[in-house]
Structure formats: structure tokens, C-alpha cells
């Protein structure tokens, strides 16, 4: 399909998805044809999506980026979730040679030293594995919500991702955290125990801290950086990550 067609398709999907419930949105995504991939971080939003995929046996590949720096609680939750729903969550790891090259240039924990070093680490541990995970995909499903941060306030239900040439669907775009919590409680969805310890958003262990009262949900991610729009590069175009050259992805 051409760029113009995909862009128009995303616009049309955006309108159709708005009127559906979560199961309906995922059913529509699964019906679009081609490989449909859901990337889960095992965070609470993603667990809700996995729950609905598992319950309905939707033909959607569930994958995760096993960065090698995840919390043990997150790693344990991958297997727990697979067992609960009888699905496979395919793990995508960084390449050993990329980690060695990063460590040689910046030091294993060099991400604390500069934004460039941090983006480079996310590049090898997340962005490159994501590219492998999405290889051949027509549809990419994410758990992004508008309420997670100011940077995500305009998240649509569907958008054309020109960089990856696919349609990205965000079926929880309009959900708030109260609605997420209700479903998790009502349907006993397995979640990361760190959420109860002040971690609404959970990434790699060295780069995530608990938030303080009044802070935004993603304030605990890369907290030492001042940029309010800090992201890992998975949901922003390359051009917005000046230190991540396309050739590194
Ligand atoms: S979140 Fe931290 S440890 Fe994880 S990939 Fe990014 S910089 Fe590296």
C-alpha cells in the first residue's frame, strides 16, 4: 500500500476506533490483514491489552523488549502473564555486539552522563530490538494513553508511522488511569507489584524511580534529565532524537 493510502487508512481507522470498546478496537486491528504486533512493557496499560487479547484469542503477536536491564519483578511478570493467558510473549534482546560497543564508548551505565549517551543506550537496548520486533508488521499496537504525560496528550487512536511504514494503533488513547485500575481489579489482571510501590510507569531498573505525590505518571523515567519531553525513542521519530543517527537504529 502506498504512503498516501496508509495515511488515509489511518485517518479513517482513527474515526472508526473512537466509537468502539477496547475489545472492539483490538478485534478491528486484528482484522486488518498482515502481521499485527502488540509491544508490551508489562506496564499496567499493556497488561490490560494483553488481558483482552488473551481472553479473545485475537491473532496478534505479543512481544516485549527484554533490554537486559529490567526489574526482576518485570521479568517474572512476563512468564506469569504467559501462563495466565496461555500465550507466548516473544522476547527481543539487544545484540551482544551492540552492548559491547556501547559499553566501550560510554561505559555500561554511561546513560547517566549525557542525553546523548542515554539515547544511545535506548537505541541499542530498545529501538534496534523494536525494529526487529516490528519487521514485516502492518499494524503496531501500543498502550499509549493521552493522560500519561503532556508529550502524549494528543495521542490518536490510529496514526501512520512513516518511519516504520505501518499503522500504529493506540487503543487506550482515551482511557484514564482510574478506568485501567477498575478493569485490573474487576478482572484480576496480573500486574507488576512495583505499581503499588509508587511506580506508575516502569522501564529499565537503573532509569526508573518511584514518583512523588503530585508528579506526572512518567516523572520517574530518566528523572535526572530536565527535558519534560524525555522518551526512549520508541514513540518519537528519529528527527526528535538528535543523538540517535538513523544508521544506529
Ligand atoms: S531506559 Fe536506561 S538502561 Fe534502559 S535502554 Fe534506556 S538508557 Fe538504557
UniProtKB/TrEMBL annotation:
Reactions this protein catalyses: [thioredoxin]-disulfide + sulfite + AMP + 2 H(+) = adenosine 5'-phosphosulfate + [thioredoxin]-dithiol
Enzyme Commission identifier(s): 1.8.4.10
Domain Phosphoadenosine phosphosulphate reductase: 36-210
Main location: cytoplasm
Keyword Nucleotide-binding set for record: no
Residue numbers annotated as active site: 232 (nucleophile)
Superkingdom of the source species: Bacteria
Pathway membership, UniProt: Sulfur metabolism; hydrogen sulfide biosynthesis; sulfite from sulfate
Residues that, per the record, bind [4Fe-4S] cluster: 121-122, 204, 207
Pfam families according to UniProt: PAPS_reduct
Cofactor note: Binds 1 [4Fe-4S] cluster per subunit.
GO molecular function: phosphoadenylyl-sulfate reductase (thioredoxin) activity
Cofactors, names only: [4Fe-4S] cluster
Keywords recorded for this protein, A-Z: Cytoplasm, Iron, Iron-sulfur, Metal-binding, Oxidoreductase
Compartment(s): Cytoplasm
Entry similarity comment: Belongs to the PAPS reductase family. CysH subfamily.
Function per UniProt: Catalyzes the formation of sulfite from adenosine 5'-phosphosulfate (APS) using thioredoxin as an electron donor.
The protein, known as: Adenosine 5'-phosphosulfate reductase
Gene label: cysH
